[in-house]
Amino acid sequence: MSDTNEELRVSKIRDGTVIDHVTGGQALNVLAILGIDGEGDETVSIGMNVPSDKLGRKDVVKVEGRELSQSEVDVLSLIAPEATINIIRDFDVVDKNRVERTTSVTGILVCPNHNCITNADEPVRTEFEVFDNGVRCSYCGTIVREGDVAERIDARGVGETAL
Ligand code: CTP
Ligand code: ZN
Predict the structure, then answer these.
(1) Residue 62 CA: which ligand 1 atom is closest?
(2) pTM of the prediction?
């Protein structure tokens, strides 16, 4: 019972990405950022509220056969600032990076202002400047507070795909 090793919960993967040290409770928002809704054919494993020495409780998301785009990582840094991105190849961790908070995020988030040019019929890709407690739309100036960022993730999981 003393073992807090998550391996007991979520098995190792051969190839793909492990997003580790995700803030407890944020795993489903991580999936939304990655545009994963169960409709695709990716194999995904999730650990929620796994005991962690560093964070107390953490979430872990393992996506097989897939790496993350920079804009996905940028948005991830807003909701899971302690996350580490581990690239797995043939069962080995070949790369490990902490997410870094960036000055702006493009795509993935939707501007709450319906009149914003990014919500027009021929949409412009969204861009938000990141500041201490939230993000600001570069086109119309609408502010999304940090706690509300998760609600503004594009449910369509646009990611890197051009509209
Ligand atoms: N992992 C995995 N499949 C593999 C290798 C690793 O799912 N084939 C996962 C581990 O379960 C862990 C993460 O990838 O969640 C990072 O692995 P590793 O660096 O071996 O773990 P730690 O040393 O505990 O990482 P950290 O120091 O970042 O906590
Ligand atoms: Zn806007």
Answers:
(1) 7
(2) 0.88
